[in-house]
């Protein structure tokens, strides 16, 4: 290497061959554009300094300015400056979106707090009092008495107008509650559809999601979801993580874009279900250890089942054994049978069915003495209410690799059981003879939702036993419609409107309506 070559390498100069000059640059990364701006700035600065006074610069500084000018000339020869101008046309401003439903409250910034100081190093207890003489930090501890806990709301009936949140006006809320009487006239229908599977799926493919049907209904993560069976009006109920329960009247403009919010609980609303025998009643279960019934005709939340608050037993799910009898899944591994006609809000019978906490309970649609339960263990179990002496008296165990998130009988005959497990499988069992239940299909499906998303729960279509719906972790985000054999028949998606995971979904029993709920309290409605 000659001295001249070493000098050019040290100063950063280089020559450009004729082949490099002829190359055309079509696409330039953003990083290159930023570097180009830097070089241009340096070049302009160097030129201005040279024009102002060249006599004040040293030989080394003059050489640097000369190198910058050469590099700028090379960029012009390669066409990068023109490519930069063309590239700027591809950069568009971020599209502004408007959020329907609940509006975020404006937070007032509080004045800055004084610097925190260690009470322990100052020789004080957590309340700020000085320790008694002879206190030994290694052996004695004091706990602060000012510990706030989420306590239950007051016992007894609650008027919907009293527990309403984000209410525009009392008159608006009263008018909405009085309009709920229209939903008391309809009844759920579970008639088998005569259309074959392919034609039925074509109805799903025609359903669309628009920006007007993406709406925030609750402040926090959605835990439960159901659609009222009315064929004249669309009413959707959703429960969230901190005891909020929302009613969204889709075709109404009352409240917050049709959303009316209530807080009858203080902890997660784990299940909501419209009464299949009386559509004017909405049952809900909460981690508070309480099951309530919202009477839409009177606008009152009534207590149906209450556990001892000191026991801290969670109510996880509800299903109907008969028009007056409920099966309630509890978080201590027991199942309560509640007769709503008996006063006292207590269970008629309580059965110990799992070693760990239950998650769902499902009653057979025909032979209602059969019940399938899922729990935080690797078995779903089928029970016969006529023989419930001990935990080992289940008539069938449905094995899984890990805990079971949900288990549901098929809605028409009960000849199949659909389960979702954290072992990344969805299973379909043959329960034609519940005592001899066997696995029909084991479907691989990514159910790893993590800590911040509600667990997936695959649900049957209310009028079919060969089709179910489940959330998905796949990008772009979507909700999957699958056959009982595991084939993906179609998907609900919209890249412009759906950018999150819909863990919880619900389907209207008679109309082509499907709704999905995400972890930020938003509902996505396909119609």
Q: Could you walk me through the main structural features you see in this protein, from its secondary elements to its overall organization?
A:
This protein is 17% helix and 30% strand. Strand 10 and strand 11 form a beta hairpin. The chain is an alpha+beta fold and 527 residues long. The protein contains eight helices and 31 strands. The strands form seven sheets. It has a five-stranded mixed beta sheet with strand order 1-4-31-30-29, with no helix packed on it. The model is unreliable at 11-33 and 139-148 (pLDDT under 50).
Based on the model shown, name its key terms.
five-stranded mixed beta sheet; 527 residues; single chain; five-stranded antiparallel beta sheet; alpha+beta; 31 strands
Summed up:
The chain has helices at residues 3-11, 18-22, 30-52, 59-78, 80-88, 170-179, 197-205, 254-257; strands at 100-101, 158-159, 164-165, 209-216, 222-227, 235-240, 245-249, 259-262, 269-274, 281-286, 290-295, 300-306, 315-320, 325-330, 334-339, 349-352, 358-363, 370-375, 379-384, 396-399, 404-409, 416-421, 425-430, 438-444, 459-460, 467-471, 479-483, 488-492, 504-507, 514-517, 522-526. With 527 residues, the chain is an alpha+beta fold.
């Amino acid at each position: 290497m000659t001295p001249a070559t070493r000098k050019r390498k040290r100063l950063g100069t280089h020559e450009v061959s004729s082949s490099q000059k002829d190359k055309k640059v079509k696409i330039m990364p953003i990083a290159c554009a930023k570097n180009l701006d830097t070089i241009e700035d340096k070049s302009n600065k160097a030129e201005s300094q040279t024009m102002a006074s060249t006599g004040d610069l040293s030989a080394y500084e003059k050489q640097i300015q000369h190198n910058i000018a050469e590099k700028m000339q090379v960029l012009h020869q390669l066409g990068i400056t023109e490519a930069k101008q063309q590239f700027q046309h591809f950069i568009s401003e971020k599209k502004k979106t408007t959020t329907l439903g609940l509006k975020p409250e404006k937070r007032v910034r509080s004045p800055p707090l004084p610097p925190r100081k260690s009470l322990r190093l100052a020789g004080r207890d957590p309340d700020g009092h000085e320790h008694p003489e002879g206190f030994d930090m290694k052996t004695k501890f004091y706990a602060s008495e000012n510990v706030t806990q989420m306590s239950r709301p007051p016992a007894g009936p609650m008027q919907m107008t009293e527990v309403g949140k984000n209410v525009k006006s009392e008159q608006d809320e009263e008018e909405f509650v009085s309009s709920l009487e229209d939903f008391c006239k309809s009844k759920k229908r579970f008639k088998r559809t005569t259309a074959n599977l392919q034609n039925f799926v074509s109805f799903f493919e025609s359903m669309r999601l628009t920006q007007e049907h993406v709406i925030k209904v609750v402040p926090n993560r959605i835990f439960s979801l159901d659609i009222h069976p009315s064929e004249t009006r669309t009413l959707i109920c959703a429960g969230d993580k901190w005891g909020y329960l929302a009613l969204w009247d889709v075709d109404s403009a009352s409240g917050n874009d049709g959303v009316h919010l209530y807080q009858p609980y203080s902890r997660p609303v784990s299940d909501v279900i419209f009464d299949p025998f009386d559509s004017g009643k909405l049952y809900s279960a909460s981690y508070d250890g309480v099951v309530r019934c919202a009477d839409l005709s009177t606008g009152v939340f009534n207590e149906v089942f209450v556990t001892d608050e000191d026991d801290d037993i969670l109510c996880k799910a509800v299903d109907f054994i008969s028009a007056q009898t409920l099966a309630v899944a509890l978080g201590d591994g027991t199942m309560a049978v509640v007769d709503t006609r008996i006063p006292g809000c207590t269970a008629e019978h309580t059965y110990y069915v799992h070693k760990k906490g239950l998650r769902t309970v499902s009653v057979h649609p025909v032979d209602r003495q059969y019940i399938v339960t899922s729990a935080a263990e690797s078995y779903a179990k089928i029970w016969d209410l006529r023989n419930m002496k001990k935990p080992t008296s289940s008539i069938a165990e449905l094995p899984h690799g890990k805990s079971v998130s949900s288990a549901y009988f098929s809605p028409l005959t009960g000849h199949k059981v659909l389960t979702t497990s954290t072992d990344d499988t969805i299973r379909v069992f043959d329960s034609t003879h519940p005592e001899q239940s066997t696995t029909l299909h084991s479907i691989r499906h990514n159910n790893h939702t993590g800590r911040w998303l509600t667990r997936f729960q695959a649900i049957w279509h209310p009028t079919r036993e060969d089709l179910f719906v489940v959330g998905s972790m796949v990008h772009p985000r979507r909700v999957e419609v699958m056959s009982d054999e595991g084939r993906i028949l179609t998907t609900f998606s919209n890249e412009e409107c759906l950018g999150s995971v819909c863990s919880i979904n619900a389907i209207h029993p008679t109309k082509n309506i499907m709704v999905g709920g995400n972890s930020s309290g938003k509902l996505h409605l396909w119609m």
